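The data layer described in this paper is built around a simple, fixed record for each protein. We quote a single record here, exactly as it is kept in our systems:
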Amino acid sequence: MDLISSRTIEITKLGMDGLMDRQHAISSNIANVMTPDYQRKEVAFESQLAEIIEKEDLKDYIKGQNSIKYVPPNVDVFTGEIHQYRTPTLQEKAYLKSNTMEDYKPQYVTDIYSGPNIDGNNVELEREMMDLSKTGTQYLVLSNLERRQFTDLGNVIRGQ
């Protein structure tokens, strides 16, 4: 793990962006609660974040398997196996240089599964208010995590 790792900061930023888009969709749903034939909107981004985290974990694994530090081969006294570090393949080098976060884009989805009211509108105000509260809480948690990262980074810089 790098001393100054931006992975947590980048992933929390992406999560906060997705939550902000979700909050906009919920606000739009609330604003259109009385609009005939309006179909509520949702924002999906969690699976994209999970995929980014998996890719970043794979990068960490590749880095761990391919140390650039030279160590003479060690012979295991019990099995006779020779343990040595290897250099990454060209594919692994290309993967390590790739930006796994560049394709991230929260998806706006129309909710077709909720049953419409008499006027064709499928927005339920109570559900939207609960979703708004949940989204706000999730945003608060991520912003606190990011604040802690910056506090820790500031402490390292100050030598504390």
